[in-house]
Amino acid sequence: MDLASLGWSDFFAANFAGHREQGLLPARVVTEDKLHYTVVGETGDMIAVIAGKMLHHRGANAALPKVGDWVAIAPQPGENKAVIHAVLPRRTHLTRKETGRESTEQVLATNMDTAFVVQALDVTFNLRRMERFLVMVHDGGAQPVVVLNKADLCAEVDARVAEAHAAAGNTPVIVVSAKTRKGIGQLREFIKPGETVVFIGTSGVGKSSLINRLNGEATQPTLEVRASDSKGRHSTTWRELIPLPAGGLVIDTPGMREFHMGFADEGIDEAFPDLMALGAGCKFRDCSHQNEPGCAVKAAVESGTVPRARYESFLKLQRELAFIAEQRKEHTYTVNKRRSKLGTKAWLRNG
Ligand SMILES: Nc1nc2c(ncn2[C@@H]2O[C@H](COP(=O)(O)OP(=O)(O)OP(=O)(O)O)[C@@H](O)[C@H]2O)c(=O)[nH]1
Ligand SMILES: [Mg+2]
Ligand SMILES: [Zn+2]
Question: Whose CA is nearest to atom 14 of ligand 1?
């Protein structure tokens, strides 16, 4: 397997030079299960553990290898095993921040070019939630694409698309159906050989179903959604990097529960650039755009320049950020203890 098709680039090569001198080899993290990993390199996939030295010197949990990371490994001779000695700097990342300190960040996936923010065109359709996922993506540096799935269940697709466009700014919006295969070709156009994409969105929106369509084969488990409330049980329980037959790599993620999505303050700027720009015209520099006199943002809402719904979602996000900041003071971080299973079948099959 050549490194370029796994996403290797000059950026990583430059950062690897020192490790190469020490006789280490580059590999990419495919699955992560606490401190057990599957990595893939030029010689195929291996089970990997992290070097003791690295464990002792690590600062934050975020510094440990995550799915999508490039790592420096020492292969164990004669075995399909390796020891991870270092994590290369990340080009992009997807990070959930439950509190502000670095030790409390949960890195969900790394080094992706594009992030598909998936929403279902059914009763769960929620623009505010979409905006939050977009904040997360912007924050980590990947290119977002809004994917509206389950088009087969929606009679007003055009209206939903218009709403999504209004909320997503310049972010592309595409309409698909994993069921009827509508738009799968369009989805594919965003996945170039050697590039990595991640699917994110709440449970049941159809992330794994779409990946199975791209794959041309069902490798990802999916679950039937309860018809009554459209709520799926979580069917994907681990993150995994999957090679596609046509080139390119996808990372499947388990659906996130809304409440646990944290946001970085910088991300809000990028999700609401229009409001941020207006805010420069407010009378007070620290204007919260709620009750202050001379607020340019409120004036724009009153005059209809900014849709009221957009303003309200901005306020809601601001409140949630404030709430998270409060929580931060009260709770100390507990490491996510969710047990996940290793899923190496895709690599065994393709590699
Ligand atoms: N009608 C319809 N159903 C779909 C479509 N895509 C997915 N589904 C169904 O939605 C349910 C959830 O799909 P999954 O692919 O498991 O969703 P997920 O986003 O991976 O969910 P988690 O892994 O729990 O985060 C399954 O029953 C799918 O069959 C679609 O385009 N149309
Ligand atoms: Mg899934
Ligand atoms: Zn203001």
Answer: 206
User: Which fold does the domain 272-328 belong to in CATH?
Assistant: Ribonucleotide Reductase Protein R1; domain 1 (1.10.40)
Q: For residue 79, what pLDDT is reported?
A: 82
Question: Average pLDDT, stretch 276-280?
Answer: 86
| Alpha carbon distance 233, 231 (integer Å) | 7
Closest Cα to atom 24 of ligand 1: 234
Q: How far away, in angstroms, is 205 Cα from ligand 2 center?
A: 8
Q: What separation in Å is there between the alpha carbon of 179 and the centre of ligand 1? A: 9
Closest CA to 204 of 276, 124, 274: 124
- 3-state class (DSSP) for residue 116: strand
Ligand 3 (ion): which residues have CB within 5 A?
282, 287, 289, 295, 297
Superfamily of domain 94-260: P-loop containing nucleotide triphosphate hydrolases (3.40.50.300)
Q: Judge whether residue 320 has pLDDT over 90.
A: no
Task: Look at residue 115 and tell me whether its pLDDT is greater than 50.
Answer: yes
Distance (angstroms) between ligand 1 centre and the Cα of 208 equals 7
Element (H, E) at 108: strand 105-110
